[in-house]
Carboxypeptidase-like regulatory domain-containing protein
Amino acid sequence: MQYPANLFRQFLVGFLFTSFAIGTSAQSTGYLTLSGKVINRETGEPVPFASISVVGRGIGTVSNVVGTFVLKVPATFVDDSLKVSSVGYQSITQRISAVKNPNPVIYLKTAAVTLDEVQVQARRKTAEDILREAVAAIPRNYDTTSLQLTAFFREDQAFGDQPVVSSEAILSIYKAAYNQSEIKDGMKLIKGRKREYDRAIHQLPPMINLNNGARNLLLYTDFVKLASYKRNLINERNYPYYDFTLSTLKGDRLLYVIDFKPGKRKRKAFGSGKLYIDAQTMAFVQIEYEATQAAVDAENNRDWLLKKVASAVHKLDLKFTGLKEVVKYSLPDGADAGDRWHVSHVERLYRFRITSKSRKLIDRPWTVTSSLRVTEVGPKGVPPFTEGNIAENPSPINNLIRNQNDPDFWENDSARQHVSADTVLGKNPVAGRADSVESRLLKSVSNPVGNRQNGFTRADTLRGKLTPFRSHYDVTFYDLAVKVDIDQRVISGTNRMRFRVLEPLDKLQIDLYENMPIHQIRHAGKPLRYTREFNAVFVEFPEMMKAGSEQEIEIEYAGKPQVPDLNVPMMGGFLWEKDRDGNPWVQVVCQGSGASLWWPNKDHLSDEPDSMRISVTVPDGLMNISNGRLRSKTALPGNWTRYEWYVSYPINNYNVTLNIGNYAHRREVYGPDSLTLDFYCMPYHQEKFRWVFDGVKPMLATLEKHYGPYPFPRDGFTLMESLYPMEHQSAVSFGKMPNDSAGPLTLVDTLRHMQLVWHEVAHEWWGNNVSCRDMADMWFHEAFATYSEGFYLDSAVPENGELGYIASLRAQVIGKEPVIGVRDVNHIHYEIGDMYSKGALVLYTFRHALNNDRLWAEMLKGIQQRFRLQTITTNDLIGYINEKTGTDYTWFFDQYLNYTTIPTLEVQLTEKGSSLEVKYRWKADVPNFRMPVAVTKKPDQFGRILPTTSWQTIVLPNMEIDDFEVDETRFYVNVEVEEPQSVSSRSDR
Ligand SMILES: [Zn+2]
């Protein structure tokens, strides 16, 4: 559960006091480092956010809250000029060569308040007049073409005065034209690094990410671009909520200064501060903004349920306590008349207070200071980013960059290093992974985003398509026997594949990764000819096989199977590790990549064998756990032991597994039919994991209540500690504990872990019993498994744990690709998170749209019965739902599964006397989208409406605009509210 990074998108702006821990930078060859301070000449106070730049070079920095700055200048610029300026001060310019002290103190004179003509004019105008003029001048003053900017981002999080994590990045920014606020700005990561400090000081779990992020700074602070935004101070509709005071200021340019604070009608006033407007051009130059207490309270009340659940899960209470922000706009260096302004600098501070009695933290402050400074401007007229755009990625920038302590990190990027103060490194570098290779940094953000964009290849088709070479036979039995040489990381063995011929054939396709050599393929004791193309193997028979006949081929092979690539989703392989005592520990995970990465088979999800034998020979002293029942354990010559397992049900190829290690075993029985429960873990974890195994019976009881009986009773149920979590049929692996140290588990560890166990075990129903026929339909495995986690949270978190959990998944939806993949190409190596988060939200939304929990519950069990031990498509699932509900819901699933956009409820609100007139309709990709949804029909009371894509109107008595709400907790929808007459129709000013 993650606190949303876009916590503040509904406030426009804010401002801040940073506390950059600027250290003295290492002097590097060829660079001059100025580490100085800017001071107010009259008062001796520091000048925060003063610009310090090399004239005409696009090189610059900004002083921090205590007036200090660090600027690296190439030594060749020593004859250039340094300009220091700040709003409200007279700027000064000085030759760099004349700056003798490497720690210069620069004094700025405050600007005089003038009594010139403009000021006299100003007296005849109100602040509102000035604001209207400035808004009207936006198209003239700001770029009306797109612009590329390069910026330096820096963020520091601190717990009290202790640093928690610091991040730095160089970003390339796509700034959409100022007159096109509907076009989102884009952002690419050029280079970045972070430093994480010891978590022990605050003990918060890693998933709690209280960062602010470059994305928020970029998208939600440029108030000029968002001028028409509903809550924007400069939007005329909000003027009635503020009190304005107008004055003028003469620095380098004459400025109007508008002080603003909430007025009498303060309900919709979210900030106070100062706006600076250039008197000559009427351009907005700067805003200093601080959230009001009302705004702070509103933020704390938003998503209260989500926050309550998160607080309960994490035993943690987080209170937002404040937001400050400064946004500056600049003209290009040496600008002429007619040049356009652009956003040049954003600083933001926000604060939380944390209380967690279990961690002995009472009301402790957490602060986040962030800064985005533009360092290069241009070119203009650039196209939006088509790839690598992290502005659309909800993942905080912290997750996209790596720990990096190399002092030369920025030095390699000579064009931009001048802005760096090397403060991530700090004075006490943490000994850690020196992950210093830039290519790895870039790789982490330019993950393959799926072959949908890149185009599919013949190899994808061979892997994913059901051609006659595959569809003309049906596998009935696999007899897999492998020997695992752990020292050499080699597996060798045979697979006997028994199959029924469905259509006459003399050639068929099986699959085995091309890095795994085949020694021989035999049929009726004779070797067969075969050819290989990518990972496909085409086997030829000397004569045509008759339809209906039973055949068997035996494939003998050996090789070094691939290891997983964690940078690519679902890129599986063999894990070769050691346990804490130094014993070998080996596991295979291959969902997505496919079983053919380690054994030859018909690697298509549509065909499961009716049963299977899995024999695994391992070095003496180790055990192998596979699926189904252990039938025998045989000592073999040469210090080898063979474990023979038997699966008596159909099984997905990717679920066939081996887990080799020094395992301890415990057996129990469950239920009236005495289902055997086999639990395996490392011997040193038997006590530590007791609670996990003790939780199995209630878990199975809950899952059986919702989905029907455990699907594989003959094979028993096995749950094991493993290297990686995976839903291996009747041999569920829960991976390593989040905290694999010898210490006790925290409550958070146990909750997260149990949630994972429930997820994997739910796959026994969703994925293993009812399985998808093509990878494109895998979403329902993950959607239902994630949905099932809600049952656990409901039992673990009092009051609406499930509701809060599912609603919290909204923040995780990526929305880049539809939930349904591309058929016939095994489409899987892309960011598949939406199958989980959006998938579960879709199920939850459907349940609430259906509004008949009894029928919903019947259908869940019904699907399990109707499609028991079968492979199905999404259409089979929808067909079943349509049949049982007697209603065609194809439009619902079509919208949510085949499009990245979700339906938007468009609402127009008008107060008429004491009633509220509500006009509403759906905006969706699917024509005739018509989902019922819940809205407040009385204050704080939801009732259902039945919107279609045409406008409808209801009148709600005794309701005001602010009482109206759409139930976005139970319905995964967007809401767009227009209040056409909300300001002008009110005469209560
Ligand atoms: Zn899963």
